[in-house]
Design brief:
The protein is an alpha+beta fold. Among the domains are: 2-90, TATA-Binding Protein (2-Layer Sandwich), CATH 3.30.310; 114-226, Endonuclease III, domain 1. It has helices at 22-26, 69-74, 76-79, 94-102, 114-123, 129-143, 159-164, 167-171, 177-188, 190-194, 201-209, 216-226, 240-249, 256-263, 270-278, and strands at 2-4, 10-15, 32-34, 37-44, 47-55, 59-65. It has a six-stranded antiparallel sheet. Helix 5 (114-123) runs antiparallel to helix 9 (177-188), helix 5 (114-123) packs across helix 12 and helix 11 runs antiparallel to helix 12. It is globular, with a radius of gyration of 19 Å. The N and C termini lie far apart (54 Å).
Length: 298
């Protein structure tokens, strides 16, 4: 059901069929949790839009603002993970099976916002989570615009000024030259990148991997959000290979090759398994963590 709400927002409600842990499902999509719901801003094919999502026990509610509001509401069920059916995943593995039974409402949401997800992934390349967040915040501040709606939120960065900006602008946003140059390259072809929302995950993966500087880790991070692909594995991640190997074998350390071998029986739900294994905590610590470095001071 879609109804008008006053002069500005539009609203949609849909029934919730089956278990849904909405917070766990939405958390990887990088919106904002607030006291009145979860918020997402987007540059859609119809224009800028803002989405607020809430739920009761039986219904999911979405309110949207801006020209892109109808586009976001059309995808309300997909964003909330209702298009993903965790019951399709069955396993008799003692560790993974128990985790899956404990978290029946964990789903993979799909945004269809490929360029936005790719920018987030690039910002996270080979840096700490804190550094990635700082870069994303800077990009929104520098290249974003105020988002439609009642809250003071900003839209994701606009690819056109991103492509034109000189490197020194990115340096001030906690982005070194390698990531800055890559962001400018993908921004120049943002329209083509976003068209891969209509492709299958494997087709989209091939398109993204053809971009110089976009490797397996970046592809995985992108498609798990834009396409809601529950089979994506973050190959090259600093911790994931150790987490998987540790919790599936008891050994404290592992390699990407060992991780992929252990996850192969769970295809096409390998990404679902890695998310479940994350709940068990990190691998045993050995040696120092990666130190954060503020490049704006150099």
């Amino acid at each position: 059901m879609v109804t008008m709400m006053g002069l500005d927002p539009i609203s949609r409600s849909i029934p919730i069929d089956g278990p849904l842990d909405l917070k766990a499902t939405l958390r990887p999509l990088h919106g904002w949790f607030a006291d009145d719901g979860w918020w997402l801003t987007a540059r859609t094919p119809l224009g800028p839009g803002s989405l607020r999502m809430r739920r009761t026990k039986q219904e999911l509610f979405g309110d949207a603002w801006g020209d892109g509001g109808p586009w976001l509401l059309d995808r309300l069920d997909a964003i909330a993970g209702l298009d993903d059916d965790p019951t399709e995943f069955e396993t008799n593995h003692p560790v993974v099976g128990e985790l899956h039974r404990r978290h029946p409402g964990w789903r993979f949401g799909r945004t269809d916002l490929v360029f936005d997800a790719l920018v987030r992934a690039i910002c996270g390349q080979k840096v700490t989570g804190e550094q990635a967040t700082a870069a994303l915040r800077g990009l929104r501040r520098q290249f974003g615009d105020p988002a439609p709606g009642p809250r003071e939120l900003r839209l994701p960065p606009d690819p056109e000024p991103m492509a034109r900006a000189p490197y020194w602008v990115y340096h001030g946003l906690h982005l070194e030259k390698r990531r800055a140059d890559l962001l400018r390259r993908v921004a120049a072809t943002a329209a083509r990148i976003d068209k891969s929302r209509y492709a299958t995950p494997s087709e989209a993966a091939a398109q993204l991997a053809s971009i110089q500087g976009v490797g397996q880790w970046t592809v995985s991070k992108t498609l798990s959000i834009s396409h809601g692909d529950a089979d994506q594995v973050d190959v090259g991640d600093f911790h994931l290979k150790h987490i998987v190997v540790h919790h599936l074998t008891g050994r404290p350390r592992g390699t990407d090759e060992e991780m992929l071998e252990l996850l192969e029986p769970f295809r096409p739900h390998r990404g679902r398994v890695t998310r479940l294994l994350h709940t068990l905590g990190h691998e045993p610590s050995f040696g120092p963590r990666v130190a954060a470095r503020d490049i704006t001071r150099s």
